[in-house]
Design goal:
The structure holds two protein chains of two kinds. Chain A is α+β, with helices and mostly antiparallel strands. Chain A folds into two domains: 53 residues, no CATH class; 141 residues, MucB/RseB, C-terminal domain (Phosphorylase Kinase, domain 1, 2-Layer Sandwich), CATH 3.30.200.100. Chain A contains eight helices and seven strands. Chain B is built from nine helices and no strands. The longest helix of chain B is centred in the middle third of the chain and has 22 residues. Chain B is globular, with a radius of gyration of 17 Å. The C terminus of chain B is likely disordered. The chains are: A alpha+beta, B mainly alpha.
């Protein structure tokens, strides 16, 4: 006989019936020769059947009304009325247009540099992150297109940061308008549905290179920095120290291009 | 949306079963499933390719983990119903309960992480790779937890695990 040695994993896979037929036969003949192991394996198989039988009735119970999926869908629709987009657009207009115009020169909203970038990231975060319908325009599944589009609009190669190591997956991105021209916004979420936003654009004149600093704008917190004329800002609800770690990761990847 | 209904709805009974076996309290378990469905509906379009089943179990498992964390940080006990107590009425149900109560009691003695693996693999039929994804651990960890869970449950069922149980109780009290 010239078979691979039988492993513990094989025994479990045998119990769960997920082995290829040939391997299953090999494990089967091994068990025939080793009654002690066969007894253990039989015990595991009995457990499996016992558990399944004991828990089966739960899956047969009629679903309570709270778990009616159509109702849940309906409930969420009611909570996000179709006029939402119009309201969001008006808010954006009044903040960026009217408000910005009236306050020009008087309140001195940040007009350049890192503060402006952080402000723009906070606006994008506040508008898009709570969006349940279309938080991003191009989804992660079309990353190639997203990158091509963003790169051509920003006039330079843009790389989408990969935040998987921090537990955040790319949802997608969009182009957003700023006082300093187009900016790329990338949105990420983790398994708890918590979202963070990375905004990046070329810096106009101020702060072509700026160290990473903490920023706080209207309830949104994050970090902003600039490297070689490109500004980055990360905004999210996570605690400052974990945002900092994510920001460091974004910066590390951007520098590695 | 229709696509979502067709794919998610048939899985709700299994999600309930997993939640109830994990938290052992009908109301809390159903709350978790409801939360899970709310999230599934609102995040449906952000779903990556891959098994809807594993995706739903991931959401549910994370909610359950939060639930356990909150319960322990509040320092109070989550009320534990005897699984099956309230829902199986009548003679046939009574018989079922007597037959299976033992294995459920013993399952409840396993550490949470071992219980989760055993339920996902042996009851919910997730592949080892899917279970690894749900629990966010390497597949090797899934295998070792599965092995420990089965060994330990076997010891419990064979009635030789009196000593370790006392150790656990004492650790909780201090």
């Amino acid at each position: 006989m010239n078979t691979r040695p039988i492993t513990e994993d094989d025994l479990h896979a045998y119990v769960d019936d997920v082995l290829e037929p040939e391997r299953r036969a090999e494990v089967g003949s091994y068990l025939a020769d080793h009654p002690d192991v066969a007894k253990r394996v039989a015990g595991f198989a009995d457990q499996r059947e016992l558990l399944r039988a004991a828990l089966a009735p739960i899956a047969d119970e009629p679903l309570p009304p709270e778990l009616n999926l159509s109702r849940i869908v309906e409930g969420q629709r009611r909570r996000s009325p179709p006029a939402w987009w119009a309201i969001a657009a008006m808010l954006l207009l009044s903040v960026g247009g009217f408000g910005g115009w009236v306050m020009r020169g008087s309140l001195e909203a940040p007009s350049g540099g890192l503060a402006a970038l952080a402000q723009e990231a906070a606006y994008s975060y506040n508008v898009y992150a709570p969006d349940r319908i279309r938080p991003v325009e191009v989804r992660a599944s079309d990353t190639t297109q997203l990158v091509q589009w963003i790169s051509s609009r920003l006039n330079r190669p843009v790389k989408v940061p990969d935040l998987a190591g921090s537990g955040y997956r790319l949802m997608g991105g969009r182009l957003v308008a700023t006082q300093h021209g187009p900016a790329a916004m990338f949105m990420y979420d983790d398994d708890h549905g918590s979202r963070v936003v990375v905004l990046t654009r070329p810096m106009s004149s101020a702060d072509q290179n700026a160290p990473m600093t903490a920023q706080s704008n209207g309830g949104a917190t994050g970090f902003a920095w600039a490297d070689d004329g490109i500004g980055y800002s990360l905004v999210g609800p996570a605690p400052m120290n974990s945002l900092k770690a994510i920001a460091n990761e974004v910066r590390r990847q951007a520098r590695a291009i | 949306m229709k696509d979502m209904l067709v794919q998610v709805e048939p899985l709700i009974p299994a999600l309930r079963r997993y939640a109830r076996a994990l938290v052992r309290n009908r109301a809390n378990a159903d709350d978790l499933v409801q939360d899970c469905l709310e999230r599934a509906v609102s995040r449906w379009h952000q779903r990556r390719d891959g098994s809807v089943r594993a995706w739903l179990f991931t959401i549910l498992h994370n909610l359950a983990a939060d639930h356990f964390r909150q319960a322990s940080s509040r320092g109070r006990h989550v009320p534990i119903e005897e699984a099956g107590e309230s829902e199986f009425r009548g003679a046939a149900a009574q018989e079922h309960r007597l037959m299976y109560q033992d294995v459920l009691d013993k399952l409840a003695k396993l550490p949470e992480e071992q219980r989760a693996v055993l339920l996902l693999v042996a009851v919910e039929d997730l592949s080892y790779a899917e279970a690894a994804k749900v629990l966010n651990v390497p597949i090797g960890t899934v295998m070792s937890r599965l092995s420990r869970a089965r060994e330990r449950l076997q010891q419990e069922l064979d009635g030789v695990a009196g000593a370790p149980r006392n150790v656990v109780t004492m650790r909780r009290l201090t």
